[in-house]
Amino acid sequence: MRAAAAKRVDAPRAVVQEATFDAVGAAVRAGLLRTRKQLPPWLFYDERGSALFEEITALPEYYLTRTEGRILTREAEAIVSTAGPPLEVVELGAGSAAKTEILLAALLQHQARVTYYPLDVSAAALTSARARLRPLRRVIVRPILARYPEALDLPRPPEGQRRLVLFLGSNIGNDDPQAARALLAGVARALRPGDALLLGADLRKPARVLLPAYDDARGVTAEFNKNVLLRLNRELQADFDLGAFRHLARWNARRSRVEMHLESTRAQRVVLRALDAEVSFARGERIHTESSYKLTPVRIRRLLARAGFRTEASWTDPRRWFGLYLGRRVPARSDARQLAARA
């Protein structure tokens, strides 16, 4: 999720190209013209994909959003106080900002105004976020269409004000451990000592709880997964037959992650005219579209420490299904490896 240049969305009706043709084409070439086919999950989030994901978050099987929201509702004041207002807020993968609204409202109890930078790959999601936050008149919303962390080259907040970066929804689980650490280290480099990161992470639990969240009874997640093929048909003039692929969700216990795939139900060839390319699929061959790593508290603290953050506080639900972790950016002279050893 880290290619295109950031674009400021200055009006709710602004029309912004969500990803350049070159970025989409490069991702598809790299992912489909290889032995083990894969596509990056940021391709999910065109306008239709963003709407489908919002629908997923309301499904009974999808516990993540509800559980994180309950933690935020219960602990918003503690989170804001620990982060240390006055704060400027930046959010990676903001989506519709439904949960962020809770924290912003709590923060307004401590300061007259809040500047909020939501970053997302979907212009539709940013428009929705801006509309949702309109009743909070003292929140100044500055949406940015981008893939993180490069887009964190933002103006410095006023002297005496800290920056709080939100990375909620267990989005950190979409990256493998090495990439996750690199991403958080990139965030750390964009922050000053004393700034903070609030990380939301889905915790490891039995597969019987995990898998239905990625393979719901109504088939909304399957539709969301297949939507990536619709996007390629539209943007790359491809001829994917959606009926010739089925949605698969699998628990990989060894790697502690849920995997989503699209499996070809027959031998077939797909033409991508805009790329002047053709892709062959054997029956049963899969496209890996997303991984969702499930972490432990020890791994989360170690991940934060190695990226340059000191974990100051954490909050979870009674079942310990989901956790929020507040990391403080340590001074540059601090040795992150020593912090990691103590994590």
Key features of this structure:
single chain; 343 residues; alpha/beta; Rossmann fold; 9-stranded mixed beta sheet; 10 helices; 33% helix; globular; disordered N terminus
Task: Please give a structural write-up.
The chain has 343 residues and is α/β, with parallel strands linked by helices. It has 2 domains: 21-60 and 209-293; 84-206 and 295-342, Rossmann fold. 33% of the residues lie in helices and 24% in strands. The protein has 10 helices and 14 strands. The chain has helices spanning 21-32, 47-57, 63-83, 100-107, 123-132, 177-189, 207-210, 220-235, 297-307, 336-342, and strands at residues 7-8, 87-92, 114-120, 139-141, 144-145, 162-167, 196-202, 245-252, 257-264, 268-272, 277-281, 286-293, 309-316, 322-329. The strands form 3 sheets. Strands 1, 2, 3, 4, 5, 6, 7, 13 and 14 form a 9-stranded mixed β-sheet that branches. β2 (87-92), α4 (100-107) and β3 (114-120) form a beta-alpha-beta unit. α9 runs antiparallel to α10 (336-342). The longest helix has 21 residues, at 63-83. The protein is globular. The chain starts with 6 loop residues before the first strand and ends with a helix.
CATH class of the largest domain: Alpha Beta
Number of DSSP strand runs: 14
Q: Residue ranges: pLDDT <50 for 5 or more in a row? A: 1-18
CATH topology of the largest domain, anyone? Rossmann fold
Query: In terms of quaternary structure, what is this?
Result: single chain
CATH superfamily of the largest domain: Vaccinia Virus protein VP39
The helix-strand sequence is: EHHHEHEHEEEHEHHEEEEEHEEH
Q: Classify the beta-strand content into a percent band.
A: 15-25%
Q: What is the C-alpha radius of gyration, as a whole number of Å?
A: 20 Å
Distance between the termini: 28 Å
Major sheet: size, sense and barrel closure? 9 strands, mixed
**What structural category characterises the helix and strand content?**
alpha/beta
* CATH arch. level architecture of the largest domain: 3-Layer(aba) Sandwich
Total domain count:
2
